[in-house]
Design goal:
Elements lengths: L2 E3 L6 E3 L14 E3 L36 E6 L9 E3 L2 E8 L4 E8 L5 E6 L20 E2 L3 E5 L5 E5 L4 E5 L15 E3 L2 E6 L6 E6 L5 E6 L10 E5 L2 E7 L3 E5 L6 E6 L10 E3 L2 E5 L6 E4 L6 E2 L5 E5 L10 E3 L2 E6 L4 E6 L5 E7 L12 E3 L2 E5 L4 E6 L6 E6 L9 E3 L2 E5 L3 E6 L3
Parallel strand pairs: 20-24
Antiparallel strand pairs: 1-29, 2-25, 3-17, 4-36, 5-6, 6-7, 7-8, 9-10, 10-11, 11-12, 13-14, 14-15, 15-16, 17-18, 18-19, 19-20, 21-22, 22-23, 23-25, 26-27, 27-28, 28-29, 30-31, 31-32, 32-33, 34-35, 35-36
Length: 426
C-alpha cells in the first residue's frame, strides 16, 4: 500500500486572548523525567521522552527476514508495550481470557524468557476484543516492576520475578475493560480508572503498596494513562479523560484545574512541549493545546491556546517532534502534521486503506523520521517536517497493536504472538 494526498479540512480555532501567546523561551512546562537512571533506558509507557528517541544507529527498514536480530514467541496474549532496564525486557500478558495475568521477563540480548510471575487470584472484568486483559504497559525503577490489571489489581514484583505486593480491587464495570499504564512518580505509583458509577485517581507507596491517597472521579469512560508534568517548578499529574482534562496535586490528589473540550471516549496519552499540553480525544474528535501555567479551577475559557474540531486519534497517542505535532486518525487511516505552537495544519495524508480503528500503536520519532504502525503490522516511515514525504513502508506481516520500545540501536516490537528485536544486521 502507498500513501496518497488526501484533502480533508480540519478547522483550527484560535481561542480569544491566547492565539498569539508569548514567544516560547525557557520551557516552563515540561515532562517530569524518570528518576535515577530511568532516562538511560525505556522504563515506562512511551519511554522516557514521549515516544521520542535520541538519534542513533536504528534501522528504518525491516521485514520478517530483514534486520531481524531475534524473534521469540510470547506466552499468553496481550497488547501492552515492552519496557526495558539494562539487559532485561518486561511485558504483561494474560491467559484463559484474563483468568491468569502475568508479568514476563526476557533477556534483551537473545529474547530468552527468563521468568514469568503470576498475579494472585482475582476477579475478571469484561473486556472488548481489541483491548483484552493485559493492555496497560508496566513501569520499572530497575529494582521492581509495577503492572496494573484492572480488577486483576495493581501488582509489584522484583526484577527477579518474586512478588513484592499486590493491591486487589473490587469488580469494576468499565466499558471495554481496563488499559491504564501505571505512572512511577518519586515514591509513588499512580493510576486512574474510569468505571461505573464513577472512577478514581489514586497513589500508592511504591515500596509497600499502601494507599497514600485516592480521589473520586465522576467520569465512567476512559482508557488513558496519567503523566507527570512540571509547571513553573510545581509538579502536577495530568489526566486526559472523558469530556475534560485535569491537573492534580501529586502529594494530596487534590484537583488543581480542569478543562472541558474532550469527547466522551478518551484513550490517547497527552504530550508536553512548548509550554503546552496536547490532548486528543474521541473517535475523530478534537485536539486541545492547553497552557497549564497559572491554571486554577475551570480554565476552559482562559487557557486553551488552540483546538481542532475533528480528526483526532481514537487510540494512538500524539507525537511531538520538535516544532511539529503528529496525530493519527485511526478512523480514516490519516496522519496529520500541525505547527505545535499555533495549531496550523501543515499537511495531512492517508496511509494505506481507510480502515475504522485500523491503528493502535503510537508513533515514534527518531533520526529525523516519524514511524507510524497500523494494526496489520505495516509501518509507514516519513520525514519529520512541514511537508509530507513518505520514504517507504515496512511490513512484519503480523497483527501489531502494541507500541515499540527502542534502545541502543534496536527496536523491540510486540506483535500478536511474538516479540521481535530489530537492528542493523551489518
Amino acid at each position: 500500500m502507498t500513501c496518497r494526498w488526501f484533502a480533508l479540512v480540519v478547522a483550527v480555532i484560535l481561542m480569544p486572548g491566547v492565539a498569539h501567546a508569548q514567544k516560547i523561551h525557557a520551557q516552563k512546562v515540561h515532562l517530569v523525567p524518570p528518576d535515577g537512571d530511568g532516562a538511560k533506558y525505556w522504563p515506562r509507557w512511551r519511554g522516557p521522552a514521549q515516544g521520542l528517541v535520541a538519534d542513533g544507529n536504528y534501522p528504518d527498514r525491516w521485514s520478517p527476514t530483514e534486520n531481524v536480530i531475534w524473534k521469540v514467541k510470547v506466552p499468553g496474549q496481550g497488547n501492552s508495550s515492552p519496557i526495558i532496564w539494562k539487559d532485561r525486557l518486561f511485558l504483561t500478558a494474560h491467559e484463559n481470557r484474563g483468568a491468569t495475568r502475568l508479568v514476563l521477563c526476557f533477556d534483551r540480548a537473545d529474547g530468552k524468557l527468563l521468568w514469568q510471575c503470576p498475579v494472585p487470584k482475582h476477579l475478571v472484568e469484561k473486556a472488548q476484543g481489541k483491548n483484552g486483559w493485559a493492555s496497560g504497559t508496566p513501569s520499572t525503577d530497575g529494582e521492581r516492576v509495577y503492572a496494573y490489571f484492572g480488577t486483576g489489581g495493581l501488582f509489584c514484583c522484583d526484577v527477579a520475578g518474586k512478588q513484592v505486593w499486590h493491591v486487589a480491587y473490587p469488580k469494576m464495570d468499565a466499558l471495554h475493560g481496563m488499559a491504564c499504564s501505571p505512572l512511577l512518580f518519586k515514591d509513588k505509583v499512580i493510576i486512574f480508572q474510569e468505571h461505573k458509577p464513577g472512577g478514581f485517581i489514586a497513589a500508592y507507596d511504591k515500596l509497600t503498596g499502601k494507599e497514600l491517597w485516592k480521589t473520586p472521579r465522576k467520569e465512567t469512560v476512559s482508557w488513558g494513562s496519567p503523566i507527570a508534568v512540571r509547571v513553573g517548578g510545581r509538579d502536577q499529574i495530568i489526566v486526559s479523560s472523558s469530556m475534560r482534562v485535569y491537573g492534580y496535586d501529586p502529594d494530596t490528589g487534590q484537583e488543581i484545574w480542569s478543562c472541558a473540550g474532550n469527547l466522551f471516549e478518551v484513550i490517547p496519552t497527552p504530550v508536553v512541549g512548548h509550554d503546552l499540553l496536547f490532548c486528543c480525544s474521541g473517535r475523530s474528535g478534537p485536539t486541545l493545546a492547553i497552557r497549564p501555567e497559572g491554571a486554577q479551577g475551570d480554565i476552559t475559557k482562559t487557557n486553551v491556546v488552540w483546538r481542532t474540531i475533528k480528526g483526532s486519534p481514537f487510540v494512538p497517542s500524539p507525537l511531538l517532534y520538535g516544532d511539529y505535532l503528529y496525530t493519527v486518525n485511526d478512523m480514516l487511516s490519516i496522519v496529520s502534521c500541525f505547527d505545535a505552537r499555533s495549531g496550523k495544519q501543515l499537511w495531512q495524508e492517508r496511509c494505506g486503506q481507510p480502515v475504522k480503528e485500523g491503528f493502535s500503536a503510537s508513533p515514534i520519532g527518531v533520526n529525523g523520521k516519524v514511524f507510524v504502525t497500523n494494526d496489520e503490522g505495516e509501518t509507514y516511515v516519513m520525514e519529520n517536517g512541514d511537508q509530507f514525504k513518505l520514504l517507504h513502508a515496512n511490513r512484519l506481516e503480523e497483527r501489531t497493536l502494541a507500541s515499540p520500545a527502542l534502545l541502543d540501536g534496536r527496536w523491540y516490537i510486540r506483535t500478536q504472538k511474538h516479540l521481535w528485536c530489530i537492528g542493523n544486521s551489518k
